[in-house]
Amino acid sequence: MTGLAERFGTPLYVYSAKAIRERVRAFDEAFGGVPHSICYSVKANSNLSILRLLDKLGCGFDVVSGGELERVLRANRRAAKKVVFSGVGKTVAEIDAALKAGILLFNLEGASEMEAVAACAAKRKQTARIAWRVNPDVPADTHPYISTGLQKHKFGVPIGEARELYARAARSKHLQVSGVSVHIGSQITQVAPFSAAMWRVAELVRQLQSDGHKIEYVDAGGGLGIDYSGSQDFAATVAEYAHAVTRPLHDLNVKVLLEPGRSIVGAAGVLLTRVLYRKKNGEKKFVVVDAGMNDLIRPALYQAEHQIVPVEDRKSGPEIVDVVGPVCESGDFFARERTLPTVNEGELLAILDVGAYGMALASNYNTRARAAEVLVDGKSAQLIRRRETIADQIRPELFKRA
Ligand SMILES: *Cc1c(COP(=O)(O)O)cnc(C)c1O
């Protein structure tokens, strides 16, 4: 890690290809007993090299924008047939691009959106495969910003209205009813909400089949949480999850689509950052590092607590500190009142489990260049995104004419 920081500079995102492969394999093994396909949720980490790695492992993709679809196509032109398209605000241009690419499935989230997909497909003389994303009205015990499966959330259609909506979709000759989709939120660490949602979905599938619809796919969404506090037996967790998802579906003859994001890449990344300064305000000690909330916003946005470890273990005594960044916001912190080994100015810290929703949520706030990203695979460490320059940031801007 010290070598990588010297070679590529800090702050630096470092990902492990091995960790990603292991997670994909764990999913495939846990769902080995049923026809399934992993459609990795691109928004968790959308780096092209990560997408290409996942494509090579046989994954499909869940995209939520035309931009994400374009990334998938750049990773592999032929990956479109394994793409599902989710999201509450798909534009006509995005729908058109997805039809042109020939994606597997549109997850519809509203009646007007259905009309838009049907109209686009008609114009292109195509048939769009669709699923309704149903909102099962089950609470998921997670942060309110990443809970999506309750009636009050903007996502999906109420499960009670689904039969009528399927009937409407079936009347359009440019739509082909193909599946039922559900996604109840993110960082869900108990399997009970997944199970509750799936029992409701299974009951709906049975009704739809008796209504004469051919339901080929059940898209179970993503949302499986990871343990940010320490090590987790991931194989056991995903096995329990697989049981919760597949048990309600066992007699329905459907293929299960999975949309994991965080659980595939979250634990596979660290953020390396250098200690710039130490300072004290009264009794309070601060460690000021060169990464900021623009690089990793999860602590500020979700009250996330990532473990932080010194890269060189000097066996120094513990102290209680706030680890903060250089951004001009009090919300720019990585840890508050955290007991850490004493670190000196110039030393390196690693912020753990940042592979998901880390770089993906990075910004240029304070005109800070976004960090570089490196992918480690065995003995090789390759730059997969160079550090941004000030020129990169300023390029789209124009001076107002005098
Ligand atoms: C965000 C999202 C996912 C992935 O969620 P994770 O918690 O990262 O697994 C999957 N499906 C949809 C529709 C999403 O919006």
Walk me through this protein's architecture:
This protein is α/β, with parallel strands linked by helices and 402 residues long. It has two domains: 2-12 and 267-385, Lyase, Ornithine Decarboxylase, Chain A, domain 1, CATH 2.40.37; 17-263, TIM Barrel (Alpha-Beta Barrel), CATH 3.20.20. The chain has helices at residues 2-8, 17-30, 48-56, 66-75, 92-101, 111-123, 162-171, 192-210, 234-246, 262-265, 298-302, 390-394, and strands spanning 12-16, 36-41, 60-63, 83-85, 105-108, 128-135, 157-158, 175-181, 217-219, 255-258, 269-281, 284-289, 308-310, 318-324, 333-341, 348-351, 372-377, 380-385. Strand 14 and strand 15 form a beta hairpin. The model has no long low-confidence stretch (mean pLDDT 96). The structure holds pyridoxal-5'-phosphate (PLP). Pyridoxal-5'-phosphate (PLP) binds next to helix 10.
Share in β-strands: 15-25%
Gyration radius, to the nearest Å?
A: 23 Å
Order of secondary-structure elements? HEHEHEHEHEHEEHEHEHEHEEHEEEEEEH
Q: What's the structural domain tally?
A: 2
Assign the CATH superfamily of the largest domain: Alanine racemase
The largest pleated sheet is described as:
9 strands, mixed
Helix residue percentage: 25-40%
- Give me the secondary-structure category: alpha/beta
What gross morphology would you assign?
globular
Q: How many DSSP H or I helices? A: 12
CATH architecture of the largest domain: Alpha-Beta Barrel
Count of β-strands: 18
Bound compounds, please?
Answer: pyridoxal-5'-phosphate
